[in-house]
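Can't attach files on this board, so I'm pasting raw text. These are the components:
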Amino acid sequence: MGCGRVGAALASMLDQDGHDVTVLDTRAEAFRRLPPEFSGKRHVGNGIDQDILARIGVGQADAFVAVTQGDNRNVMATQMAKHLFGVSRALCRIYDPIREEIYRGLGLETISPTLVGARLLKETLDRQPAPAGQES
Amino acid sequence: MYAIVVGGGKVGYYLARELIQGNNEVLVIEKDGAKCERIAQDLGDVVLKGDGCEAATMEVAGFGRADMVIAVTGDDEDNLVSCQVAKVKFAVPRTIARINNPKNEAIFRKLGIDTTVSATAAILSQIEQELPEHPLMRLLTFKGGGLEIVEVKVPPASAVVGRRIRDVLLPQQSIIVLLVGQDGTPRVPTSDTTIQAEDEVLAVTPTENEETLRNILTSPPGGSEPGSSDPGYGRPGPAGPYEPYR
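---
Top answer:
Structure tokens for the assembled complex are below.
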């Protein structure tokens, strides 16, 4: 759910691995981010509407991933996938680290790119700089 | 009582005004600066500019000592998260969420929101009652069991007119509990009671069978009623329905 840069890249990777992938976005033009060889399904619709989730077959899915720009939308859709449709793996991107912690505590599989990104940057900074005379 | 209202739109504004008049301590949280100013002008120093789902803002607003959080923004997802964070992180005893999509009621309840209020559902039910020809009206929904009491008006062309209740194939677990004739006389039905044109049928039915029940009671012969083209019309099939009258 959410065909932004991350959503499109993830969908494409899963598709290449041979999974049966469905992408949902509220705007059809978002699907332009998918590569031409993408063989999965594309659906236009709002992922926090349970009728839409039912229509695209979330009940039969092995995993659901919410990566829209809205933390709250991701949280709501993921909880619906998990608690209404019984999807066993429900993953959710939450930018706000505090909300991420709360929903991890409530049993969602959550990722905060804010924390992950900050940690990566710090690790890179902490590393010894490349030897002089060499472009890093 | 200390009540925090999340969302300073029209609903939030009037709600805050009523709560203040009821001598409650009230704080409205609103993202939009212009709306905040308007509330502050009209209602005084009762507004905080910020995001009612953001823990830092919630801390400042004093969610920790709130008796009640009422989330009334126009977005169901924001109302849900605001109430969930209030419950989980700040242990607010009572959370109320406005929902715009009436279908969200069940999932909100499942996710721990104490009360949901759906303006859409309220307006819809009001409109249904105002309409002269309402094919099916929900009189009462039982929260726990998925059962409801409905009222269906039997049109003169319906296939069930003139038939005894025992001969009408009702959906699973649906029972006709009362018939009200055109003149307003109620009849407690037995299996031999005949359904007449313009009868108002009161029935108990599981929510998922509501549509089937309505079809059976209102469709003309040869309509969508199952088995209507069968000469043994109305005879319960091998997997017969639940029949409380026999």
